[in-house]
Amino acid sequence: MIVQNEIASIAWVGMGLVALGFAYVVSQASKPADAAQAQAAYATSNRLRRWLFAGLLIIGIAVSYVTLKPFPIPPQHAPLQAAQVVDVVSRQWSWTLSATQVKAGVPIEFRVTSADVNHGFAIYAPDDRIVIQTQAMPGFTNKILHTFHEPGKYRILCLEYCGLAHHGMLGEFDVVAADGARS
Ligand SMILES: [Cu+2]
């Protein structure tokens, strides 16, 4: 599920509310203070702050639970039993993949390592949205598991600065429909 656009909309609404709050404070700033009103406003803001804290705490716990339950990182020290395995070796400044064509609709295990320095292995969908990423580290093999649903040409970009030609460290592979035909 792609939720970036929804999150951006929520952020814009939140920023708008904050801006409205500022505008209200500025519009009220020149009015003389009234001791009784100030006391009442202080009590109200204290009450609101307690509710806000409780609300944010509950939302934070709920969002953490819902988003971390399908934890994206699979167990690293057990076989993953994925239908396809792609070994990925990174080096300054290229990616070597054991397969450049994978099937859509079945889980694929990427085993990612590095032959020299740390790199950032990131897969981008044809619409340039990041799909999944992990570190490529010398001496370690990091496993990630992903099921592609959209056939197409996927790109690999390095997400960790790794030297002079880091920006040119690109790779690509094809995701084909499960019956083997390109769609
Ligand atoms: Cu890099």
What is this structure, in a nutshell?
This protein has 183 residues and is α+β, with helices and mostly antiparallel strands. Helices cover 32% and strands 31% of the residues. It contains 2 helices and 9 strands, in the order ααβββββββββ.
Account of the 3D structure:
The protein is an alpha+beta fold and 183 residues long. The protein folds into 2 domains: 4-68; 84-176, Cupredoxins -  blue copper proteins (Immunoglobulin-like, Sandwich), CATH 2.60.40. Helix content is 32%, strand content 31%. The strands form 2 sheets. Strands 3-9-8-5-6 form a 5-stranded mixed beta sheet, with no helix packed on it. A 4-stranded mixed beta sheet has the order 2-1-4-7, with no helix packed on it. The radius of gyration is 25 Å and the shape is elongated. Bound molecules: copper (II) ion (CU). Copper (II) ion binds at residues 119, 158, 160-162, 166, 169.
- For the secondary structure, the number of strands is 9
Helix count, per DSSP? 2
Q: What structural class results from the helix and strand content? A: alpha+beta
What is the overall pLDDT average? 90
Approximate shape: elongated
Distance N terminus to C terminus? Answer: 21 Å
Q: What key attributes describe this structure?
A:
binds copper (II) ion; 183 residues; alpha+beta; 4-stranded mixed beta sheet; 2 helices; 2 domains; Immunoglobulin-like; 9 strands
